[in-house]
């Protein structure tokens, strides 16, 4: 099994409920085991400012699924939770699931880039990731998580108190 880190985000239709539903779906993926989940964080939107703040988290998943099979599964989860794919990038959405890191792989395919592009500039990815990843984590391209955090301020990010994900979800082991 390979360790995969998945970014979760939502700013529509009760975002905390959306993330809990996504985590339950991740816990039920075949050939996979949901290992742990970061705290939830509120963040300012990257796109148009006239949308609600996002709720974000990062999950660690151990999986035997191939990268594109996992991507397909994540997109099915998004669709099941009301995600509508629109031409507008960074607009509001019920759920966004991104493969941030996939073991030690560098992936550059039309549908999937790992490490996730621009993650180095996104506090809403790096700080939740740092909460659950080993401190010595290095991305497949050689960059260390510590270096990325030092270059990315915590600004616009708020750790949500009392919004931790329930252990019942984080300890589920799939088939």
Give a brief rundown of this model.
Keywords: ATP-binding, Folate biosynthesis, Kinase, Nucleotide-binding, Transferase. This protein is α+β, with helices and mostly antiparallel strands. It is 27% helix and 25% strand.
Account of the protein in words:
Catalyzes the transfer of pyrophosphate from adenosine triphosphate (ATP) to 6-hydroxymethyl-7,8-dihydropterin, an enzymatic step in folate biosynthesis pathway. Pathway: Cofactor biosynthesis; tetrahydrofolate biosynthesis; 2-amino-4-hydroxy-6-hydroxymethyl-7,8-dihydropteridine diphosphate from 7,8-dihydroneopterin triphosphate: step 4/4. It comes from Stutzerimonas stutzeri. One of its GO terms (molecular function) is ATP binding. This is 2-amino-4-hydroxy-6-hydroxymethyldihydropteridine pyrophosphokinase. There is one protein chain. The protein has 175 residues and is α+β, with helices and mostly antiparallel strands. The chain has one domain (2-159): Alpha-Beta Plaits (2-Layer Sandwich), CATH 3.30.70. Helix content is 27%, strand content 25%. The chain contains five helices and eight strands, in the order βαβββαβββααβα. The protein has helices at 15-27, 67-80, 123-132, 145-150, 167-170; strands at 2-10, 32-37, 41-43, 54-63, 96-102, 107-109, 112-114, 157-159. Strands 1, 2, 3, 4, 5 and 8 form a six-stranded antiparallel beta sheet that branches. A two-stranded antiparallel ribbon has the order 6-7. Strand 6 and strand 7 form a beta hairpin.
């Amino acid at each position: 099994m390979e360790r995969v880190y998945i970014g979760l985000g939502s700013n529509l239709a009760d975002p905390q409920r959306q993330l809990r539903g996504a985590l339950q779906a991740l816990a039920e993926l075949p050939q996979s085991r949901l290992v742990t989940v970061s705290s939830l964080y509120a963040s300012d939107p990257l796109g148009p400012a006239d949308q609600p703040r996002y709720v974000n988290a990062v999950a660690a998943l151990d999986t035997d699924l191939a990268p594109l099979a996992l991507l397909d599964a994540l997109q099915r989860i998004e669709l099941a939770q009301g995600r509508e794919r629109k031409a507008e990038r960074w607009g509001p959405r019920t759920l966004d699931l991104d493969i941030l890191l996939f073991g030690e792989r560098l992936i550059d395919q039309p549908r999937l880039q790992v490490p996730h592009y621009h993650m180095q500039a996104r506090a809403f990815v790096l700080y939740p990731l740092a909460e659950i990843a080993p401190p010595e984590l290095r991305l497949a391209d050689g960059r260390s998580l510590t270096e990325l955090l030092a270059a990315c301020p915590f600004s616009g990010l708020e750790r949500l108190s009392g919004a931790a994900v329930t252990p019942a979800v984080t300890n589920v082991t799939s088939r």
